[in-house]
Amino acid sequence: MRIGLGFDVHPLVEGRELILGGIKVPYERGLDGHSDADVLLHALVDALLGAAALGDIGQYFPPQDPQWLGISSLVLLKEVWDKVSRLGYRVGNVDAVLVAERPRLAPYLPAMRENIARVLEVGLEQVGLKATTTEGLGFTGRGEGIAAFVTVLLFLDKEIPRDL
Ligand SMILES: Nc1ccn([C@@H]2O[C@H](COP(=O)(O)O)[C@@H](O)[C@H]2O)c(=O)n1
Ligand SMILES: C[C@@]1(CO)OP(=O)(O)OP(=O)(O)OC[C@H]1O
């Protein structure tokens, strides 16, 4: 059994779409980055890589490489999951928190969970996802950016408990 932790932050800017968990969220600004800047999926990728002790997202998708310019982070997640699952790992559960003052994310969380469950080949009940504000405090509170924290539990095939 292995535990992984991922954390990411991207700045909110004008002229970009807001993509979170592979879902386009209607908002007047979007996250800036080399890829689609999906902060939730980047933190999830790092949690998976961390659990398998395989490094971090930038080692596989360098921000200087034009190949990844504007890429959907669902593609990056799929590539990393292929790598991790080839080692024999399966997901026990994922738990994640999006930290954003605005927009209100609750209506979009179910679709984000579905995307994550589909790519990681697990049931919806194995993917926890919440949103929180920081009550106006800090860079998230000022609306300067969005942060995400993700934990993941991996099992090797032979270790999977019967109730999962
Ligand atoms: N961007 C966000 C932030 C929060 N929510 C939902 O609001 C609830 C209250 O958040 P607090 O930070 O005030 O505790 C929270 O439970 C979320 O469901 C949201 O939808 N979008
Ligand atoms: C996803 C990658 C891909 O170039 O770029 P960004 O969208 O800038 O995201 P970040 O989390 O800053 O770094 C990871 C990179 O691998």
From TrEMBL:
Keyword Mitochondrion among record annotations: no
EC code: 4.6.1.12
Cofactor annotation remark: Binds 1 divalent metal cation per subunit.
Known cofactor(s): a divalent metal cation
Database matches in Pfam families: YgbB (PF02542)
Single GO term (MF): metal ion binding
Domain of life: Bacteria
Site (Transition state stabilizer): 34, 133
Sites where the protein binds 4-CDP-2-C-methyl-D-erythritol 2-phosphate: 8-10, 34-35, 56-58, 132-135, 139, 142
Known catalytic reactions: 4-CDP-2-C-methyl-D-erythritol 2-phosphate = 2-C-methyl-D-erythritol 2,4-cyclic diphosphate + CMP
InterPro entries documented for this protein: MECDP_synthase (IPR003526), MECDP_synthase_CS (IPR020555), MECDP_synthase_sf (IPR036571)
PROSITE patterns: ISPF
Keywords: Isoprene biosynthesis, Lyase, Metal-binding
One biological process term in Gene Ontology: isopentenyl diphosphate biosynthetic process, methylerythritol 4-phosphate pathway
Subunit note: Homotrimer.
PANTHER family tied to this protein: 2-C-METHYL-D-ERYTHRITOL 2,4-CYCLODIPHOSPHATE SYNTHASE, CHLOROPLASTIC
NCBIfam families: ispF
Function of the molecule: Involved in the biosynthesis of isopentenyl diphosphate (IPP) and dimethylallyl diphosphate (DMAPP), two major building blocks of isoprenoid compounds. Catalyzes the conversion of 4-diphosphocytidyl-2-C-methyl-D-erythritol 2-phosphate (CDP-ME2P) to 2-C-methyl-D-erythritol 2,4-cyclodiphosphate (ME-CPP) with a corresponding release of cytidine 5-monophosphate (CMP).
Protein name: 2-C-methyl-D-erythritol 2,4-cyclodiphosphate synthase
Organism annotation: Thermanaeromonas toyohensis ToBE
